[in-house]
Amino acid sequence: MTGPLEGLLVADFSRVLAGPYCTMLLADLGATVVKVEGPDGDETRRWMPPSAGDDATYFLSVNRGKRGIVLDLADPADAEVARALAARADVVVQNFLPGTAAKWDLDYDSVRTSNPGAVYASISGFGADSPQPGYDVLAQALSGFMSVTGEPGGPPTKAGVAIVDVVTGLHAAVGILAALHHRDRTGEGQHVEVNLLSSALSALANQTGAWAFAGVVPQRLGNEHPSIFPYGPFPTADGDLVIAIGNDRQFARLREGLGMPVDERFRAAADRSLRRDELRPLLVAALASRSARAWHEVLSGSGVPCAPILDIAEAFALADRLGLAPLARTADGDVVGTRSPVQFSESPVEYRLTPPTPDRDRDWVEREVVARDREGGRFGA
């Protein structure tokens, strides 16, 4: 036994990103995850470029560590396998369209009848009864995320990653772990529901807080922060340097590092934010004498939070230099994506399986899940 979720069985009926990201996190933590795909497969298998051989890197990035089986739920025999898997699982995760799960007796009420201890997680776009398709970019649009992303006066802009899907997957994983703890205390399973819109509103944090507490509707500020300054990229002799000043002490260090005189207009954080149009040209003029990397070395050495802007390859190289080993590898050395950011002192994360090819593990599922007698306890007991 290694991972903290060792011995738990997860039936993964999800597809695309939010659900698969959630179940990959559970697999990283030691759970046995069985990914169920329909005859056409998870559509992210075809979302390319980029690809690694014949496989879309999109699919590979969120499906490591899982067993895989293809089930045509319109076929009675395959539907029975799906129900047997749900009846044996500790956790069931699905993002079916509204009404679809009940059609195959895979909805919560049906699963609870045969498996009252199951933690059943439903992931939807906009609530269980909404017909709105659950695509990340729609959630970014409808949540207000895009309204606060982009340059002032410019068009609303989506994030460079499907951030709402990722956050929703994280919320689903947290909810599942909480429900498993509840089951450990009471023996009761329960239904965990997560949706993209609610996750996006929560993840907008201070931006939605501005509306909830003060009735303020935030607007696009580009790389500006609405409440603190300087906080974002500034030009140097050869590129941008990101500076993140969160308090007065840090600003004093920045001012000294740049050789700027004391100016009472900018001593307090609120004043710097309100007078950013006066402070910005002074910072830009001081930064123009050196490169972004040179300023990073000087200023970070003085305790000023700052960084050059790296591309993803450079970010991986940085993580390597810091000893963070950013690539996840199986025991055989196969790369299976980006390493889990969660590390444990007593139950280390292991990457045991590469992302499944279609139907790779049908024999295993039928032997270890469907055919085994459940009277001896839950899976792994």
Automatic annotation (TrEMBL):
Gene3D superfamilies: Crotonobetainyl-coa:carnitine coa-transferase, domain 1, formyl-coa transferase, domain 3. Coiled coil: none annotated. Keywords: Transferase. InterPro entries: CoA-transferase_III_domain (IPR050483), CoA-Trfase_fam_III (IPR003673), CoA-Trfase_III_dom3_sf (IPR044855), CoA-Trfase_III_dom_1_sf (IPR023606). The keyword Membrane does not apply. The keyword Hydrolase does not apply. This is CaiB/BaiF CoA-transferase family protein. It comes from Microbacterium aoyamense. The lineage of its organism: Bacteria, Bacillati, Actinomycetota, Actinomycetes, Micrococcales.
